[in-house]
Description:
Elements (H helix, E strand, L loop, with lengths): L1 E5 L3 H11 L6 E5 L3 H14 L3 E4 L3 H5 L4 E4 L3 H13 L4 E3 L8 H10 L3 E3 L8 H10 L4 E13 L23 E6 L2 E6 L5 E5 L3 E7 L16 E8 L3 H10 L8 E3 L2 E3 L1 H13 L10 E13 L2 E12 L8 H18 L7 E3 L1 H4 L3 H12 L3 E3 L4 E2 L16
Parallel strand pairs: 1-2, 1-4, 2-3, 4-5, 5-6, 6-17, 7-12
Antiparallel strand pairs: 7-15, 8-9, 10-11, 11-12, 13-14, 15-16, 16-18, 16-19
Amino acid sequence: MRIALxxxxxxxxxxxYGLAGNPAVRQLVLLDRDRxxxxxxxxxxxxxxxxxxxxDTDPVSxxxxxxxxxxxxxxxxxxxAIPVALSxxxxxxxxxxxxxxxxxxxxxxxxRWRGRLLLPLGLEPGLTEVLAVHxxxxxxxxxxVDIRCGGVPRVPRGPLGYTxxxxxGLLPIGxxxxxxxxxxxxVAVPRFSGVETTxxxxxxxxxxxxxGMVPWLADHPALRGIDATQxxxxxxxxxxxxxxxxxxxxxxxxPVDVDGVRVAPxxxxxxxxxxxxxxxSDGDDGDDLVVLDLAARGVVxxxxxxxxxTLIDSSDPDAPLSAMARTxxxxxxxxxxxxADGTLTxxxxxxxxxxxxxxxxxxxxxxLTRRGVAWRPATELVPAGSDPARRSAAGRxx
Length: 398
């Protein structure tokens, strides 16, 4: 099969590696606004796999004749490229979270073209929701789902214990609302609130705070009416430090006058902290981790029970690929192949946690584990409330 990959940044690099390493993919076409970056990726892939890799500069010709398109770009670029693929009759998989206000129109457009849009399918969103359904299937009744997911440096470095291996080097410190589910309904909560400590086996203690969650998680029949939280994992101390900066007004986006110059405090903080969170040139802290720890609570055989599933990955220095690029890119690559070979059918917007089930789920997770991602399926049941991985800090939810 022939696959087109639009976007050759860090996540695209992981997707290209996952696609070229799939025996079903015979030809991979790369496109990026930076032709040099696409050429460099093509040369590297050619040293890793026998797959034919070419570079194109025109989205129309890149998509034409492809069996599916993988997109690893910001949303505005993704939204512009989607009609090109739909009009060519080529299904699309993307890692990018769409603007919620555009979802209805996006679905209608895909249905009109009888096309398939599988998005967002990366680590988060994507695997987080897919694994929530996987865990829920082990329960007769699901009452609550707690998702903890994050990318961190293997060795924390002061002052924040965070290294900007991804996200364009910017600190993830924007002040906005996050979502949680209460009785199946999305409820807004402040980002960085609800701080708790979480123990992950073999890794240690992390902190978690409200951050992500897609509002359509409860669309799955097994998850309707549940309570759910989704929190980002960091090394302890990150959330309190960011909250302190915010309370001081240092993360405000409204410009203030500084000696006749209008400047947003947040931009100053980002610039000042940039050198402290940038990966070191000597590579001493270049190793990153991805941790996804998910627990579903409910009832099995009339008794309260908790089901856990975990996914842990680390960077590959030989490739080289960061853990975030691996998990995000490999998930995108696997989903794209499922579209290309017809495993995922239907039309319109295909929500990953509704579409990637059964054989498709088995193949998706098989691709990740084949690449060395450590995944523990949700096979262990323990009495509710006794899960050692959930230990809230004093004060619990803020």
